[in-house]
Each structure stands twice: as C-alpha cells, then as structure tokens.
C-alpha cells in the first residue's frame, strides 16, 4: 500500500477533532449555568465508575485558549465542540443566560483568530434537568423546546459558525439514557424508549429546519453512531438476528430522517410507536442534510437469542472472541469503517459523509514527559487507510474528525478510558501531546 498522506484524500477533505461540552468544560455551575441531566446523574451514587464527576473535567471553560492553541500547534484546522444547553438556557426554556452566550462567543472568536474553523453540535446529550422533570425526551413538547434552543444558537453564533450538527448519536442517548438506564437520565424500558425515538426524530428535523431558515448558507448535518455488524455464523437464525440488530443500531434514526420511515418490519415492537405519531408528523420527519456525520469505533458480532426481548439478538462480547481490544472492551477492527462507509454511501439520499468521530481508548503511560501510544496511532492510521480505500472506490466521504483532542470525561466510564491525542493529568490539568498527536500533526502538515 502507498504511504498514507493527506494529499491522497484531496484538498477539500476536512480534518479535525471532536469534543463535547460536558466531557471537557467543567465549570458546572459557573456564570449562571443551569443543571443538566448529566450533572444530576453523576451526583447519584453508583452511576459512574469510580464515582467520577465532571465538575472540573478538562477545565476547558477556563482554559479553552490553551487547548485551542494546541489545535493550532498540531495543525488541526477544524474543531468540533458542542453547546451546553443549560449555559444558554439554564431552565431549558425561558430566559437566556447572556453569560453563557458570551462564553461561546469567546471560544468561537478565539478559534477564528487562530485560523481554526468551529463546527458546532447543538445537542451532545446534556439535556436541562428542568426539562427532564417535565418528562424530558418522552414529552412531545420537547420538539418546541429544542427548536427554540436551536434558534437561539443559530441567531447567536450563526454569523461566524458555518458548520452545524444538530445532534450527536441519537441512538446512544435515547437507548442508554431511556431504555437501559446506564446513561442520564437513567430511565428504563420500552415505554420510555418508544416516545423518545419519535420525539428525537421530530426534534432533529425541527432543529435542522430552524438552522436552514435562519442560516440559509450554513453547512448543516447531524451525526449517527454506527457499528459494522456481522452474524456469528452463517446459520439463518444468526443472519436474521444480525439484520435485526443492524436495524436497531444503524437504521432506526437515520432512515426516518432520510424519508424512509422506521424499520418496523425488522423491529415489530416499533409499531407500538403509532400512538405517538400524530397526523402531519410524516412531513416533519425528514430533512435534506448537507452532510451526514458517521461515528464508528468498532464492529459487533451478533447471535440469535431467544431470551432477548424485542429483537431476539445479542452481541457476542469482543472479550470472548479473543480479538484485540481497546480500554472500552471494543474490538480493534479498522475494516469496520470501510464497511460502514460502503453501507451508508448506498443510500441515494445521503449527499455527503463526514466521519465526525473515530478513535480509541488505551491505557496510556506518561513516562518522562512522553506518552508513546503506539496502539492509538496505529488505530487512527489504519482507520484512515480504510477510509481512503472506500473513497478511492467512489464513496463520497469528505472529512475525518478524531475523537478526541484531550483525554476527558467518558460518561458512565469516568476518567479511566483515555481517548485523547493529548494526555491530561486530571490533578494538575497538565497537557502532554501523545505520539498519536504528533503523528496526526505531521500527517496534517504533509
Ligand atoms: C460519543 C462521545 C464518546 C465517544 C467514545 C461517542 O459515542 O459521541 O461522547 O465519548 O463515543 O465513547
């Protein structure tokens, strides 16, 4: 294979790193910020490994200049970050907190001064707790709450921000947060999950339409998590189980948005959603996004399981398969991203794909001021090789964002999984660029 160089991807290919407000900012109640469901969830016992909280996290709220300087130093031209809803609207609706707007203005302006393009995610999981008390994503009123919040973001930042993502990974925040209860707000069961799915789809579209109306020239996308899925065997039952798991993991949120409706044939319980679908909703479920953000980390192997409700399919854990693992217990399998790109490129409705997240956690060692994270470096390089292969076969993938710039708060896993190109000592907030960070920088420099 040819040496991997930036030029092979073409001059228009977008390169960056991705982050999320709750995982890096800290300053959880500074300058009028309201409580989010993640503030409330992390305050409860037993929800996050080690009882870790994100009150300080990477202290990005106060130290953002230092981290944006790092981006510049590493030649990273695009920075994806999210807006914290409760900094802008402490109660989710009602009075705007000008201090919150001022903070994001400072971050955006500083990026632009340094020649770094901001890419904004409107919603990366930190719902206002005040809205959760009114039912959160299970309450249909959220469509209005969310469009109002998006409108405020568009009017406040749209004069300088050209690239927007409405949501981050709807399947994860709705599945983990409202079905399995392992993420905030910690609710469980199909009764919560079904209305949440529909309200999230309506909100994603309502938010996107608001952005389009207010910012007709903006580049508007939204992001989906996706895993390449393979059956555990060639038996009919495993193949059918893999097909159902694929519908749940990869198709549930994107297909309605593309105008294809929910995958009810593969997941029959979705027909119970009918009671939440009101007349006229069908027209409000799809949007012509300028790009689709795909976020891929691994592949999953799926087996038929009589005991698993609704989909009769279960994952065969990577640890049982004797394959290389990341610190999250996910299989290292770079070919997955190639398959994912081919799969999503086959939807004629998708105009352009950007890989808005890809990366890996490994247990890094800081030795004499260096972190020789060879595994992460290889992971990123091999994933890029697979992306290039797909692109050379005609897949319209036009960007790649590493998850993530600095080690940060990894949700229910706390601070142990380290995903950064830059190491963070959470005691001192000291940053150390890892080998992977230097590699990415050299690659981008050409
Ligand atoms: C999320 C990030 C998360 C990352 C690694 C994605 O699911 O968007 O917030 O930290 O994956 O787990």
What layout of secondary structure does this protein have?
Layout lengths: L13 E5 L2 H4 L12 H7 L16 H14 L4 E5 L2 H4 L9 H16 L3 E7 L5 H4 L9 H16 L5 E5 L2 H9 L11 H25 L4 E7 L2 E4 L4 H16 L2 H4 L33 E5 L3 E6 L8 E3 L19 H11 L7 E5 L16 H19 L4 E7 L18 E4 L4 E4 L1 H11 L1
Parallel strand pairs: 1-2, 1-11, 2-3, 3-4, 4-5, 5-7, 6-8, 7-10, 10-11
Antiparallel strand pairs: 8-9, 12-13
Helix pairs in contact: 3-5, 7-9, 8-9, 12-13, 13-14
The protein binds beta-D-glucopyranose.
Beta-D-glucopyranose (BGC) binds next to loops.
How would you characterize this protein structure?
This protein has one domain: Alpha-Beta Barrel (TIM Barrel), CATH 3.20.20.80. The chain is 36% helix and 15% strand. Strands 1-2-3-4-5-7-10-11 form an eight-stranded parallel beta barrel, surrounded by five helices. Strands 6-8-9 form a three-stranded mixed beta sheet. The two termini are 18 Å apart. Beta-D-glucopyranose binds next to loops.
């Amino acid at each position: 294979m040819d040496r991997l160089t930036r030029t092979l991807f073409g001059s228009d290919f977008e390169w960056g790193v991705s982050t999320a407000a709750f995982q890096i900012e800290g300053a959880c109640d500074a300058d009028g910020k309201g409580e989010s469901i993640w503030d409330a969830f992390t305050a409860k016992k037993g929800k996050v490994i080690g009882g870790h909280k994100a009150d300080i996290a990477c202290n990005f709220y106060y130290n953002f200049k230092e981290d944006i300087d790092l981006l510049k130093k590493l030649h990273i031209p695009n920075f994806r970050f999210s807006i914290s809803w409760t900094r802008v609207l402490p109660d989710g609706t009602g009075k705007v907190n000008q201090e919150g707007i001022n903070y994001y203005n400072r971050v955006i302006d500083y990026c632009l001064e340094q020649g770094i393009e901001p890419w904004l995610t409107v919603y990366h999981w930190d719902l206002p707790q005040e809205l959760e008390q009114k039912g959160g994503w299970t309450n249909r009123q959220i469509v209005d709450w969310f469009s109002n919040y998006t409108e405020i973001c568009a009017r406040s930042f749209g004069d300088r921000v050209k690239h927007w993502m409405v949501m981050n990974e709807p399947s994860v925040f709705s599945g983990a947060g409202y079905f399995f209860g392992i993420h905030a707000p910690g609710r469980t069961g199909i009764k919560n999950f079904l209305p949440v799915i529909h309200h999230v789809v309506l909100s994603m579209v309502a938010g996107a339409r608001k952005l389009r109306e207010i910012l007709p020239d903006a580049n508007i996308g939204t992001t989906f998590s996706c895993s390449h899925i393979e059956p555990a065997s060639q038996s009919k039952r495993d193949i059918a189980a893999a097909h159902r798991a694929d519908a749940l993991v990869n198709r549930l949120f994107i297909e309605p948005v593309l105008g294809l409706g929910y995958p009810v044939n593969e997941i029959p319980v979705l027909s119970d959603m009918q009671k939440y679908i009101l007349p006229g909703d069908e027209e409000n479920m799809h949007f012509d996004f300028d790009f689709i953000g795909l976020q891929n980390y691994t592949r999953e192997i799926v087996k038929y399981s009589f005991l698993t409700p609704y989909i009769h399919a279960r994952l065969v854990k990577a640890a049982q398969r004797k394959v290389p693992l990341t610190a999250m217990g996910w299989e290292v399998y770079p070919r997955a991203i190639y398959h994912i790109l081919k799969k999503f490129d086959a939807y004629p409705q998708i105009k352009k794909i950007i890989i808005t997240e890809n990366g890996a956690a490994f247990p890094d060692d800081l030795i004499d001021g260096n972190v020789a994270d060879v595994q992460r470096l290889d992971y990123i390089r091999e994933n890029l090789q697979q992306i290039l292969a797909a692109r050379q076969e005609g897949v319209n993938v036009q960007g790649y964002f590493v998850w993530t710039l600095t080690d940060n708060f990894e949700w229910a896993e706390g601070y142990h999984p380290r995903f950064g190109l830059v190491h963070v000592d959470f005691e001192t907030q000291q940053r150390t660029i890892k080998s992977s960070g230097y590699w990415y920088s050299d690659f981008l420099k050409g």
